[in-house]
Amino acid sequence: MTQAYRGIFTIPATPFDENWQVDWEGLRSIVEFCIGCGAHGLVWPVNASGFGALSDEERLEGMRVVVEQAAGRTPVMLGVQGVSASHAVMFSRHARAVGADSVIAMAPYISKIGDSDGLVDYFRDVAEAARLPLCIQNHSVGTEMSAAVLERIVRKVEGADYIKEETYPVTHKITALMEADLPNLKGVFGGAGGRYMLLEYPRGVAGQMPGCHVTDVMVRFWDALEADDIDEAKRIYGLLAPLYAIEIQCQGAIYKEVLKRRGVIRSARSRNASPHVMDEYDHRALDDILRDLEPLFTWGNGQPLAYGVEHPVERDGATQSGEITTSAGGPEPFDRQ
Questions:
Q1: From CA 19, how far away is CA 129, in angstroms rounded?
Q2: What are phi and psi of 136, to 5 degrees?
Q3: CB 3.0-4.6 Å disulfide test: which of 57, 137, 272, 273 passes with 164?
Q4: Which residue stretches of 73-196 are H helix?
């Protein structure tokens, strides 16, 4: 029997080049970064990967790239969510064909399924097509499911072994699932970047699925909880709290901004993103946050963090988020005294 998944299953971001095409070598670099940070597993492409800005062809190719680059060093869970069951089945079959270890799926996210029978049928189709362990992702982008609906799906869908719960109240739903008589459920993972992990862990979560930009810090956070070192876990959480705050303030920008500063990818570009998500104050705040987190980093490429302010640049008549330039002017850094 395969050992149940546990720990930090991190989510690689999807990088883009100067022409807004997927940077495949950058994606390989991110996979190496995640593994080098000690990730217990990889999950791609899901919300933190920006899957909604990818074509079907890019998702299919990226699945192959991630599995190939991981090369069996850590489990790979591939995102197979679709706009319908047939769409998700196509991704599920491909996930199995390229050698995924498991799959994860939200409910359909455009025309949503509003009844539990339809949700059972959707996830059953996914599980039967993949013939791999299935993680059900409960997220508001798809259909937000109650603990009772999730329990029904797990009972009726063979292979529905895991749940990623990130709808509110997260902690109460996790407890309801953990206390249900579900012998086939191997684990419940938290989401929301780890914001609630201090509260989730005592309730029995199997792990966390956060964005990958500080995977090494999240692994240290998890390891502290596993070692019952609550003081260290709280200390790490305190250092992460400002990062969580700026992630909410500058949605969709921070993951790749951090990866660029850490030397993992060349560009922090994101498709369909406003070029004004971050202003100079945000960039300077992020630099300050990373200086505080840097002592917790276990991964390094031999280069110092690339601090700086990213300004919008003009390209093809449109303003897009572009290259980092260091500026001596602008807002003063935060007072660190």
A1: 35
A2: -85, 120
A3: 137
A4: 85-98, 116-130, 147-156, 170-179
Q: Rounded to the nearest 5°, which phi and psi values hold at 274?
A: -65, 140
d(CA 86, CA 88): 5
C-alpha 42/C-alpha 82 separation (Å) is 19
- Using an 8 Å Cβ cutoff, are 101 and 135 in contact? no
Cα gap 190→201, rounded to integer Å: 9
Q: Which two tokens stand for residue 46?
A: 């899901």
DSSP 11: B
The predicted-structure confidence for 114-167, as pLDDT tens digits, reads as follows: 899 999 999 999 999 999 999 999 999 999 999 999 999 999 999 999 999 999
What is the dotted CATH code of the domain comprising 7-230? 3.20.20.70
**For the chain, domain boundaries:** 7-230
What is the pTM assigned to this prediction? 0.90
Whole-angstrom Cα distance, residue 250 to residue 235? 24
Classify 302 in phi/psi space as left (phi over 0), alpha (psi -120 to 50) or beta. Answer: left
